[in-house]
Amino acid sequence: MFWLYTRDFGLLKVLARGIRKLNSKLRGSLGLFSLAEVSFVQGRRHKVLTGALTQESFSQAKGGLVRLRLLFRLGWIFCFLVPSQEKDKNLWKLMEQAWLRLEKEELSFSESILFYYRFFWQLVFLLGYGPELYHCVFCRKRIASQVFFVAQEGGLACSECLKKKRLRARKISETSLKLLRLLLNSPWEDLKKEKLRPELKNLYQEQLVFLRSERLGNRTS
Ligand SMILES: [Zn+2]
Questions:
Q1: How far is the CA of 142 from the centre of ligand 1 (A)?
Q2: Among positive and negative, which fits the CA dihedral 14, 4, 202, 135?
Q3: What SS3 class is residue 75?
Q4: What does pTM read for this prediction?
Q5: Ligand 1 centroid distance, CA of 169 (Å)
Q6: Which of left, alpha, beta for 15 (phi over 0: left; psi -120 to 50: alpha)?
Q7: pLDDT digits (tens, 9 = 90+) for 105-148
Q8: How far is the CA of 207 from the centre of ligand 1 (A)?
Q9: Dihedral of CA 165/169/174/177: which sign?
Q10: Distance from Cα 158 to the centre of ligand 1, integer Å
Q11: How far, in Å, are 63, 66, 78, 143, 146 from residue 115 at the CA level?
C-alpha cells in the first residue's frame, strides 16, 4: 500500500499490485517521495494503482541521510495529520514547496530540524488547529511577559488566568515564542539563520500529543 497526496483527490491510500515484480511496469516509475502523474481505479476494497509516471524524484538527490530522514518525517506527519480524501490546494502547495525547496538546497542537521518544525506548524495552521500566539486564550489580553502555552486550550495563556482556572501549563521564553512566530511568518532564508532552541521541541511535542488525542476523539465519535 502507498500513501499518495494527490492534487485532485487529496490523501489516498492505494494498492500498487505487482509493484514488487521485476517486470512490473509500475516499478521504478513510482519511488518514495516523488512527484508523479498517476492513475488508479476503485477496486472492491481498495483503490488500485494502474499507472504512474514520475516527473520528479526527491529522494535521489544530494543531502544524504539528513535529507532522507527529513523526507520521512515530513511524509509521516503529513499522512498522520491530514484527513483522507480531502482535496485542498493549500496543503498541496505546502507539500510541493517543501519538496521543491529540499530539491534545491542541502540542509545542515539543525536546519533540517527547523525546516521540519516550520512545516509542522504551517500544516497545523492550515488544518485549523493553529494555536493562538499573541493573546491569552481566556481573557484575550495581549501577553507581553510570563507567557504560558496550553495546547489543549488553544494556545497562549497569561499567569492570572492560569491561576484562576488552576491549570498547569508550560512556561515559554520570549525568545522561543518569537521563534515560533517566525517559523510561521518569515521566509525560509531568514528563518534558517536563527538558532534552534530546545524549547521548540517541547512545544512541538505538546501540540502533537494534543492533536493525537483530538484525532482519536474524532475517530471514536
Ligand atoms: Zn488571561
A1: 8
A2: negative
A3: helix
A4: 0.88
A5: 13
A6: beta
A7: 889 999 999 999 999 999 999 999 999 999 999 999 998 788 99
A8: 20
A9: negative
A10: 4
A11: 14, 12, 14, 27, 27
